[in-house]
Amino acid sequence: MTHTRTALILGATGGAGFEIARALRAHGWQIRAMHRRPDDVSSQMPDADWIQGDAMKAADVLMAATNADLIVHAVNPPGYRNWGKLVLPMIDNTIAAARANKARIVLPGTVYNYGPDAFPLLRETSPQNPTTRKGAIRVEMEARLRRAAETGVDVLVVRAGDFFGPNTGNSWFAQGMIKPGQPVRSITHPGKPGVGHAWAYLPDFAETVARLVDRNDELATFETFHFNGHWFEDGREIAERLRIAGGVPDAPIRRFPWPLLHVLKPFVPLFREMAEMQYLWKVPVRLDNSRLVSRLGSEPHTPVDEALRETLRGLKCLPDAPSRALGLAVG
């Protein structure tokens, strides 16, 4: 009898979690998703097995992970509320559940782990010396995963730049550049003119994860791969292409209101987290995917204009947009 591979998705209503679940399902995996209110969200992914539970409760995660082969840790507190206090206990719960079920953990990684000493080209071996609180927490998350791997827990980290895609919600793209649910009338660009920036189209990123875990027997106990995605030598180019994809080639491209963000950050948790990451928009930061390409032969890559159109359609910014749009995403 052929064993049906089961993947538990933590954060299935978020951008990365949803797309990874969809990619794994297309690769033949059985998808199990945990959510505090599964009846409210199960229609978003009707072919998944939904289980009620809270990622902050070790017993809930352990129960949800029963007989799972893979745990995708794509969960974060919505709106970054209490992010610093909640993120590390959640990864500890995932590690415990993976250990009990001999499952591999998949973590969508970020560039927050790095400081200026690693720029401009990030490799898997680049030093992780962040200068921000959020970056330090991400480093600690991966350190705990690495220590778990030393005692037999399999881990896969796939790192990428800023996410965009048809199911991104709480992201720079959806909250910093356009207004979901509205036609594109203007675009806000957070970066400095002439500074390069890396973007990751979520369906391509998710397909990369699915292809890697399909080759689990070839993976070491602890593996890290960098995903290049869409790189723009001048980060403003994505805004220029975005207005064309939105059918408004003359739409104004505005500067991001960083000064206002800093004024409001003591009162709005999301603004505080966004302001902390401003340094990543001041300098070029690119990911070297040579190790990934060596392993897979190529990196999944949707042409940028097509990816932007699908993103706008998913965020209901085009006339033919679908009714569904996810409200949470990975940070």
From TrEMBL:
* Any one cellular-component term (Gene Ontology): cytoplasm
- NAD-dependent epimerase/dehydratase domain ranges (all copies): 7-223
Q: Which domain of life is it from?
A: Bacteria
Q: Output the InterPro entries linked to this UniProt entry.
A: Epimerase_deHydtase, NAD(P)-bd_dom_sf, NAD(P)-dependent_oxidoreduct
List GO molecular-function terms, semicolon-separated.
aldehyde dehydrogenase (NAD+) activity
Q: What is this protein called?
A: NAD-dependent epimerase/dehydratase domain-containing protein
